[in-house]
């Protein structure tokens, strides 16, 4: 099984690179960045998102015809997205579409692979930085990437940088909750708050020790599947925003180092989103 999984993972890395090249080229072509909207005027998609997802799925289908897919741009609006026990590729073709549209330099291709509903490996290619993060579940920690990585050992949250995002839900109540949790975090006070504009890159920043924790409500499984393995294999922890184990389908997540996770969960308690704010994808 090890060799089989490695073969699948090698293909994921290769196709992520190929996809990243398409994204880089599209950045220089205004037409490829023409904006369409989805659930709201700030929920953006471009033909490049769709093209890249198609490219990845077709490439995988040729090699692994029995595998299933959950891809952001293939899940129809309002459709339930079901994660089964079957081998499944969980794809975010462009994580950071808003960044892509604005040429803001953090844009990732994110690919997670699950079997029995457990993510077996994650590949995040931050394609404008040309950084490839990969990790697979093995006994030893196994994150690899093409630059120096120093997982953070900071346990005093007052010395931390926290990453979060504002998502694309601009309903007053949701925005209030976001700011309430942010106020708590800033009041600790932490050294700083950042957001790369992509969930996958934020998680790789945790894995790299550049930030101590990342939290967000509203994420989908394709935003966090790959990053979840990368964080855990780097030595980090995943939690629900209200504490306890994370459910990758629940649309909420905290990814952090061991030293800060409890404090962060406590401070964002004010967030306490109801299931209605962020309905689970399944
Ligand atoms: C989004 C990005 C963003 C996060 C949103 C995601 P997309 O993904 O990861 O940082 O705040 O929750 O939906 O739409 O650019 O693939
Ligand atoms: Ca999107
Ligand atoms: Ca995404
Ligand atoms: Ca996307």
UniProtKB/TrEMBL annotation:
Mg(2+) binds at residues 72, 92, 94-95, 223. This is Inositol-1-monophosphatase. Its main location: cytoplasm. InterPro entries: IMPase, Inositol_monoP_metal-BS, Inositol_monoPase_Li-sen, Inositol_monophosphatase-like, Inositol_monophosphatase_CS. It comes from Sphaeramia orbicularis. Keywords: Cytoplasm, Hydrolase, Lithium, Magnesium, Metal-binding. Belongs to the inositol monophosphatase superfamily. Its EC number is 3.1.3.25. Gene3D superfamilies: 3.40.190.80, Fructose-1,6-Bisphosphatase, subunit A, domain 1. GO terms for biological process: inositol biosynthetic process; phosphatidylinositol phosphate biosynthetic process; signal transduction.
């Amino acid at each position: 099984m090890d060799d089989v999984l490695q073969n699948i993972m090698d293909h994921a890395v290769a196709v992520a690179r190929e996809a990243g090249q398409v994204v880089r080229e599209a950045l220089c072509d205004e037409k490829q960045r023409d904006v369409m909207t989805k659930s709201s005027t700030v929920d953006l998609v471009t033909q490049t998102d769709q093209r890249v997802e198609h490219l990845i799925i077709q490439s995988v289908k040729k090699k692994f015809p029995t595998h299933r897919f959950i891809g952001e741009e293939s899940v129809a609006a309002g459709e339930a997205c079901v994660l089964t026990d079957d081998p499944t590729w969980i794809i975010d073709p462009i994580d950071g579409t808003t960044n892509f549209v604005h040429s803001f330099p953090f844009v990732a291709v994110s690919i997670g692979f699950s079997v029995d509903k457990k993510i077996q490996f994650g590949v995040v290619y931050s394609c404008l930085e040309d950084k490839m993060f990969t990790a697979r579940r093995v006994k030893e920690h196994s994150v690899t990437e093409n630059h120096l990585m120093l997982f953070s050992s900071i346990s005093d949250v007052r010395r931390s940088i926290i990453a979060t995002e504002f998502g694309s839900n601009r309903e007053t109540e949701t925005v209030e909750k976001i700011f309430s949790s942010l106020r708590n975090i800033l009041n600790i006070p932490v050294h700083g708050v950042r957001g790369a504009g992509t969930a996958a890159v934020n998680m790789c920043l945790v894995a790299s020790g550049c930030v101590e924790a990342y939290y967000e409500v509203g994420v989908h499984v394709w935003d966090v599947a790959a990053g979840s393995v990368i964080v855990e294999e780097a030595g980090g922890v995943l939690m629900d925003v209200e504490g306890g184990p994370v459910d990758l389908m629940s649309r909420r997540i905290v990814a952090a180092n061991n030293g800060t996770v409890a404090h962060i969960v406590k401070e964002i308690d004010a967030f306490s989103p109801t299931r209605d704010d962020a309905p689970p994808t399944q």
